[in-house]
Specification:
By secondary structure, the protein is an alpha/beta fold. Helices cover 33% and strands 19% of the residues.
Length: 530
C-alpha cells in the first residue's frame, strides 16, 4: 500500500531513457517505486493510461518573486507542470532598511510588507505563507550592489568589495544556487568584469554557479558571451547565459557564432550552459530604453532627469542613435514593436495593450518623448514587451542540448489583482508551447529530450539534489500530461489564458493539480543547493 499510485502511464524518467509503460508509487514526499507494480495499491490512485508521466518541470528563470506573495497557488506555471520556480535575477535579498523602503515605495498593483532581510529569510517567508510550488534562488547582484554602493556608477573600494563577497557567501550559506547578474540594467551594468570575477569566485568557493543576463544580446552580443566565458574560466565556476537570444534583425545572424563560441568553450572544459523562453518577444521595463547614465542614483534620479530639458535632449538623442556602448531596446524593437502592458498609475491603465508608436501618435509626440513622459507620469519602469527575435533562431536554440527553459516571468492567476495588467504570454504558456508547438507539432526535438531538459538537466546543472528524475528516493514532484493535447493559449492581445493538457501535478507527494484543476494545496518548500 502506497500513499499515491500512478498506474499505466508512459514513463519519461527525465534522464533521457526510452519511455516505457509502468507505474509510479509515492510515499510521503519521495518516490517509493518505479516499474510494473501490478499488485500494489494506493490510498490515492491515478489512471494514467494514454498519458505521459514525468518529473515535475523546473522553471530555471522565474520572476515569481512578487506574484507568489500575492497568490501562492502559482497557477499559470503549475498548470503547465512546473513544480519548481528558480528565482534570482530580481529583488529578493539581502535587503537593508533603505532598500526595503525603496521597494515598498516602488510597488505596483501588488502591495506587501517586507518582513525579511536575507535571501534565506525571503524563501522561508514564502513557504510559511503557503506556496503550491517549490522555490530556489540565486543571489542577485541587483540587490547586492545597491546594498553596498547604492546606485553609484563606479567600482567598489577594497572594503566594499569585501562586503559584497561576504554577502555572497552569506547567501550561499542560506542555500543560494550561486550569483546572478543582469548586466544590461542599472546598477548591474556599472559592475566591471574584475568585480564580477571576484564575486563569482566567492560563489564558486561555496559550490555555486554564475548565471547572467549578459551585457548585450544585440550589437555587442559576441563580446558579452566572451565576457561570461572569461568570468567562468577566471573564477573556475559553471556559468549560464540567461534567456539566450539574438535581439533585433541586424543581429539575428550572430546566433551561429555564439553557438560556436559556447561549444568551443564547453569542449575545452568550461562549464557553460544557457536557458531560453519559446517566444520571439522579450519583456522588461520601458525605462530600459534609456541609456545607463540616466539611471545613476536610482529611480527618482531618473525621473528628475526625464523632467530636465538638457538631460531629456541627451536621452532622446542617445535613444535614437545606434551604439555598442549600451543595450538600446528601443532601437532593437522600434516604436511599433514596443508594447505597453503594465502600468502602476490607474489613470494610465487604459493604455495597456497599446504600442509606444500608437500612444505617441495620439499625443502628437515623438516616441522618445512619449516614453519619457509615460515613465514620469507612471513613476515606474512600465512593463513593456519588445518584439526583437527570429522564429528560426528559436527553433535552432531549442535543438541545442545544453539549453534548458525558463519563462522569465511571474507565475500568476487569471483573476484578481493580476487582471490589472497584461503579462507576456510566456507567463501562461512557455512550457506548454515547447511541448505542443515545438515538440509535437514541429518535431524540433523529441518528447524524451524535452522532458530531460525540463527536469534532470537543470537539476544536475544547478545541483538540486534528488530532484528532476523518476527514481526511487527522489522528490515526489510528478506531472501527468497528455502529449497529444498539451497546448498554450495565451496571446499578446489576450494573455490571461491557462495552458491545457496537464491532468495531474504532485508537489512533494501532494496533489496540486487534479483532473486539470488546482486543488488549493500549498506543499511547496525551499530547495537549496545540494
Amino acid at each position: 500500500m502506497f500513499d499515491v499510485l500512478i498506474r499505466n502511464g508512459m514513463i519519461y524518467d527525465g534522464d533521457g531513457g526510452a519511455p516505457c509503460t509502468g507505474d509510479i508509487a509515492l510515499n510521503g514526499d519521495v518516490i517509493a517505486a518505479v516499474g510494473a507494480l501490478g499488485g500494489a495499491r494506493g490510498v490515492i490512485e491515478v489512471d494514467a493510461r494514454g498519458l505521459a508521466v514525468a518529473p515535475g518541470f523546473i522553471n530555471v528563470m522565474s520572476h515569481a518573486e512578487q506574484s507568489l506573495i500575492a497568490d501562492g497557488r502559482s497557477q499559470s506555471d503549475i498548470r503547465q507542470g512546473v513544480t519548481l520556480e528558480v528565482l534570482g535575477e530580481s529583488w529578493v535579498g539581502p535587503l537593508n532598511d533603505r532598500l526595503k523602503r525603496e521597494w515598498v515605495e516602488r510597488q505596483g498593483d501588488i502591495k506587501f510588507d517586507i518582513a525579511w532581510s536575507t535571501l534565506g529569510g525571503y524563501l522561508e517567508w514564502l513557504v510559511e505563507h503557503g506556496i503550491a510550488c517549490n522555490v530556489a534562488s540565486f543571489v542577485p547582484l541587483l540587490t547586492l550592489r545597491p546594498y553596498v554602493l547604492g546606485y553609484e556608477n563606479r567600482p567598489p573600494t577594497p572594503d566594499e568589495l569585501r562586503q559584497l563577497e561576504y554577502l555572497v557567501r552569506q547567501a550561499m550559506d542560506e542555500g543560494a544556487l550561486g550569483l546572478a547578474t543582469a548586466l544590461i540594467y542599472p546598477p548591474d551594468c556599472y559592475a566591471q568584469t574584475a568585480e564580477l570575477v571576484a564575486l563569482a569566485r566567492a560563489a564558486a568557493a561555496c559550490g555555486g554557479m554564475y548565471i547572467s543576463h549578459i551585457r548585450s544580446e544585440g550589437n555587442a552580443w559576441l563580446e558579452a558571451v566572451d565576457e561570461l566565458i572569461g568570468i567562468a574560466r577566471a573564477a573556475d565556476i559553471p556559468a549560464e547565459i540567461y534567456h539566450l537570444k539574438a535581439a533585433s534583425t541586424a543581429n539575428w545572424h550572430k546566433l551561429e557564432p555564439v553557438i560556436a563560441k559556447v561549444e568551443a568553450a564547453r569542449a575545452s572544459g568550461a562549464r557553460i550552459t544557457a536557458d531560453m523562453y519559446t517566444y520571439t518577444a522579450g519583456s522588461t521595463g520601458l525605462s530600459a530604453a534609456f541609456p545607463p547614465w540616466a539611471h545613476e542614483g536610482g529611480h527618482q534620479a531618473l525621473v528628475a532627469r526625464l523632467q530636465d530639458p538638457a538631460a531629456r535632449a541627451r536621452i532622446k538623442a542617445e535613444m535614437s542613435t545606434p551604439s555598442n556602448a549600451w543595450e538600446n531596446l528601443y532601437l532593437a524593437a522600434g516604436a511599433d514593436g514596443t508594447l505597453l502592458v503594465a502600468f502602476k498609475n490607474d489613470a494610465l491603465k487604459h493604455l495597456t495593450g497599446r504600442t509606444l508608436a500608437q500612444v505617441a501618435r495620439e499625443r502628437g509626440q515623438s516616441p522618445e518623448d512619449a516614453a519619457m513622459d509615460l515613465v514620469v507620469a507612471d513613476d515606474s519602469r512600465i512593463g513593456t514587451v519588445y518584439f526583437m527575435m527570429s522564429e528560426d533562431n528559436i527553433r535552432r536554440q531549442i535543438a541545442l542540448p545544453w539549453v534548458s527553459f525558463g519563462s522569465d516571468s511571474a507565475s500568476v492567476s487569471a483573476e484578481g489583482i493580476f487582471m490589472k495588467s497584461n503579462p507576456h504570454p510566456r507567463t501562461y504558456g512557455n512550457f506548454a508551447r515547447l511541448l505542443g508547438k515545438y515538440v509535437r507539432d514541429e518535431k524540433v526535438i523529441s518528447l524524451t529530450e524535452a522532458v530531460r531538459r525540463l527536469t534532470s538537466y537543470p537539476a544536475e546543472t544547478y545541483r538540486l539534489g534528488k530532484r528532476g528524475a523518476l527514481r526511487d528516493g527522489y522528490a515526489a514532484d510528478v506531472v501527468v500530461f497528455d502529449p497529444a493535447t498539451v497546448a498554450d493559449h495565451a496571446t499578446y492581445d489576450n494573455p490571461h489564458q491557462y495552458a491545457t493538457g496537464v491532468n495531474h501535478v504532485f508537489v512533494n507527494g501532494v496533489a496540486v493539480i487534479k483532473n486539470g484543476e488546482h486543488t488549493g494545496a500549498t506543499p511547496g518548500r525551499v530547495v537549496r543547493r545540494s
